Amino acid sequence: MRSLRNRRGYAVAATGAALALVLTACGGGDDEDPKGGGGETNADCAAFEEYGDLDGKTITIYAGIVNPEDQPYVDSFKPFEDCTGAKVDYQADKQFEQQILVRAQAGNPPDIAIVPQPGLLAQLVATGTVKAAPEGVAANVDEFWGEDWKALGTVDGTFYAAPSGASVKSLVWYSPQEFEANGWTVPTTLDELKTLSDTIAADSGHKPWCAGIASDAATGWPVTDWMEDMVLRVGGPDVYDQWVKHEIAFNSDVPTQALDAVGAYLKNPDYVNGGYGDVSSIATTAFQDGGLPILDGQCSLHRMASFYAANFPKGTDISENGQIFAFYLPGQAAEDKPVLGAGEFVTAFSDDPAVQALLDFWSTDTWANLKAKASADLTNGGWITANKGLDTSILVNPIDALSAGILQDPNAVFRFDGSDMMPAAVGSNAFWKEATSWITGQSTKDTLDKIEAAWPSS
């Protein structure tokens, strides 16, 4: 929606004070008319005029983002509600991924869904119930995200879903205080990461790495993230895409090199499993607990996504000079910036004008900054997006700021979590199971051969 970007009648500035105004500007209190008396439009709502009067319209949003993360979404839509008269009904459900398909297939979908995987989006499109994204949304995505993100919301050449939130998986957690005390520096290449690991193993008195992959029925998924990061680094983004789409075999040369590269860390008895035991203990350690030994000086490094901040105890100093922070998992060269991550995509099952208007607003930098501001108080991490219009000064959490900076780096080459885009028989079944067997002793060849064999024939 170009009007929200260019008009200044509405307080769209991304700085803290202006955003605080935006959250309450359109209409003041609940009993006030946001359009003012006598039909005059409040200047703060001028940018919403093109949507017309949506009074009496209710727009349902269905998502798997539940309390406490759901409240910032509700708050971020308030200016839209106050200025247009529409009501946004946000419905959170932990069973979203199963139920959204059931609802779509039954012909009872919500107006809008927040979809966490491109693979699920494709399944929803196949039901014939999803509407193509409006032209204004497509224009916003072209400006604020770029081709790689737009492609993730595209199915069979049609653009359906604008990106929204994002997470960065290419991170290594560490203790800045321990690094300073020992004179260690953050590595900028994979070779430097290997040298650092050798140094810690030789000099620190503890294993350099710690890890945990236990996650009930999803045990093994952290290994898939490790491997995806290494496929990106060993083979590059084009080969990564071919691997995810099964245009090259799962047990072909680059994936084999990548899993062996992971093994150089996770299956190296000199490197793991600090604070827990030997290599096999990785399989029985909960992923939520995997990096906690860093706090006790029992390990120094833990590869895990940006959302892992929430697993450290309340009160932990997570900052650039604190007890815990993270650094970007480097590429082969310092200038290489492959980034593995995940995200959310907003898609609609209705072409009602009110729904289309909310989609347009949702795809702007204005909404992104409102959402970031509303999420700032979440414990150990708020919310980030790859939207280039995000004002990173809003991000009070240092990990959020770090992650946003990685996503906005002009050299960044982003790729979505591969297992989330693979067929379920592979991405959320064989890949997880065989990765666990690999940790407990199965060879790389047998592991990749079994995953390859699980790929559906059609």
UniProtKB/TrEMBL annotation:
Protein family (similarity comment): Belongs to the bacterial solute-binding protein 1 family.
Domain of life of the native organism: Bacteria
Signal peptide: 1-25
UniProt protein name: Extracellular solute-binding protein family 1
SUPFAM superfamilies tied to this protein: Periplasmic binding protein-like II
The keyword Transport appears for this protein: yes
Keyword Transport (UniProt): yes
Keywords assigned: Signal, Transport
